Amino acid sequence: MDKQDLIEEAKQIRSNAYTPYSKFKVGAALLTKDGSLYTGCNIENAAYPVTCCAERVAIFKAVADGQYDFQEMAVVADTKRPVPPCGSCRQVMSEFFDVDLSVHLSDLSGQIKTVRMEELLPFSFTPEDLPNDDE
Ligand SMILES: O=c1ccn([C@H]2C[C@H](O)[C@@H](CO)O2)c(=O)[nH]1
Ligand SMILES: [Zn+2]
Questions:
Q1: Domain 3-127, CATH among 3.40.50.1970, 1.10.3730.10, 3.30.930.10, 3.40.140.10
Q2: How many Cβ atoms are within 10 Å of 80's Cβ, its own excluded?
Q3: Ligand 1 centroid, distance to 68 Cα (angstroms)
Q4: Cα-flanking dihedrals φ and ψ of residue 44, to 5°?
Q5: Cα of 74 to ligand 1 centre, how many Å?
Q6: Whether ipTM exceeds 0.95
Q7: Which residues line the pocket of ligand 1, CB cutoff 6 A?
Q8: Ligand 1 mutation target, pool 18, 21, 23, 42, most atoms within 8 A of CB
Q9: 59 closest CA partner among 45, 76, 72
Q10: For the chain, domain boundaries
Q11: Residues 88-110: tens digit of each pLDDT
Q12: What is the pTM of this model?
């Protein structure tokens, strides 16, 4: 599965976004190192802040399935530039993604910006920053 295939998967799941409030639909597709695909769309709520973004839905589906070894992610939305993930999603990504994992950000016109995890959230708080029992 290449970059375009992953973007295509994100576009498809985007149509399932539950967005009665913002009407802004986002799709995400996440590939594991063993080749499994996890997709996500944003799911809104009448209590607006409870909303979960497409990126986190895809990551949480994978983790709930016992998968944490990720290879690549794609995110698609109808934006004027490749869609930038929100801060909460960047923090969740940094928990699971290697610093050099590629995230392909796309709009519907096909503009694509590929960024490494480290570029999305530099100097992030990670599990390694917590005290370690071995020390
Ligand atoms: O990268 C993003 C940015 C926004 N949203 C969602 C959250 C909300 O449902 C809507 C408007 O913010 O878009 C995502 O899913 N991913
Ligand atoms: Zn988000």
A1: 3.40.140.10
A2: 8
A3: 23
A4: -90, 175
A5: 14
A6: yes
A7: 19, 22, 24, 26, 42, 44, 51, 53-55, 83, 85-86, 89
A8: 42
A9: 72
A10: 3-127
A11: 999 999 999 999 999 999 999 99
A12: 0.96
